[in-house]
């Protein structure tokens, strides 16, 4: 049985016009992400990882090729609230409580007060922030703020979660803990996740599929299907299989640089 692609890109190109001339950000990108996959994008700075994520979200418009999300154009998917987006910074409003921040998209979408309360309670539980609804962002650590940001993206129950280096600014211990929590969250919700990272261990630990991108113009130099089991304790990172996979990603990045 073939699973329908939730995200599909065909011959995608994107060139930005700047004062210094055109910048070719993406070139001939072809990719399918199937339902329930956890796909990480890794590559050097400026290779188009975030740009591709923004194309999926309808925040950038490709100059050639096509892209679809749940069978819709990215713009239609954005209007249909088909995805949640988690940015590099938590982006919480300091004057709103954690509960208030999570409720914001639900208020905009016209959910009743009762529905809002139920959804806020559910997603706070999912990200293990029960009891913090009345706190303000400044009363939470960086890792907790980022979990609140994930809760906000989950609040309206979109099928797809787009995550742009959400843990990049956090220290390694916090990052490890959030990686574990994110895998548990993914297992419980069965979302389709597209995740941008600069970290090879993070990409290997989290993903069912790793997309290696080459320097600008951003092209896909390798797509690696992970052989790791879905259930992954942190110490799987010491296994021979994990180390071998990380090596292949590193080689892919090196080869991409050599070709670039």
In short:
The protein is built from eight helices and nine strands. By secondary structure, the protein is an alpha/beta fold.
The largest sheet, given as strand count, sense and whether it forms a barrel, is:
6 strands, mixed
Pattern of helices and strands: EEEHEHEHHHEHEHEEH
In which range does the helix fraction lie? 25-40%
| Overall tally of structural domains | 2
Kindly state the number of beta strands: 9
Radius of gyration: 18 Å
CATH architecture assignment name of the largest domain: 3-Layer(aba) Sandwich
Low-confidence stretches: none
Q: Based on helices, strands and strand pairing, what is the structural class?
A: alpha/beta
Q: What general form does the structure show?
A: globular
Output the strand order for the largest sheet: 5-6-7-3-8-9
Alpha plus pi helix count: 8
Strand content: 25-35%
The overall average pLDDT, rounded, is 90
């Amino acid at each position: 049985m073939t699973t329908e692609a939730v995200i599909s890109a065909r011959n995608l190109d994107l060139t930005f016009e700047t004062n210094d001339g055109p910048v070719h950000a993406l070139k001939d990108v072809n990719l399918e992400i199937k339902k329930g996959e956890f796909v990480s994008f890794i590559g050097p700075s400026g290779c188009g990882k975030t740009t591709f994520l923004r194309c999926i979200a309808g925040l950038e418009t490709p100059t050639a090729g096509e892209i679809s999300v749940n069978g819709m154009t990215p713009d239609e998917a954005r209007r249909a609230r088909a995805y949640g987006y988690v940015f590099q910074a938590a982006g919480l409003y300091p004057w709103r409580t954690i509960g208030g921040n999570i409720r914001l998209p639900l208020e905009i979408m016209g959910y009743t007060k009762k529905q809002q309360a139920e959804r806020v309670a559910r997603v706070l539980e999912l990200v293990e922030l029960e009891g913090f609804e009345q706190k303000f962002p400044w009363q939470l650590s960086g890792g907790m703020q980022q979990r609140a940001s994930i809760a906000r993206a989950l609040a309206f129950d979109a099928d797809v979660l787009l995550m742009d280096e959400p843990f990049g600014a956090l220290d390694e211990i916090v990052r490890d803990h959030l990686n574990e929590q994110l895998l548990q969250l993914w297992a419980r919700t069965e979302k389709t996740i597209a995740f941008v990272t600069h970290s090879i261990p993070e990409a290997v630990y989290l993903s069912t599929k790793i997309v290696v991108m080459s320097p600008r113009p951003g092209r896909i130099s390798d797509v690696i299907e992970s052989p790791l089991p879905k259930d992954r304790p942190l110490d799987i990172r010491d296994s021979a299989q994990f180390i071998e996979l990380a090596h292949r990603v590193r080689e892919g990045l090196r080869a991409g640089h050599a070709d670039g």
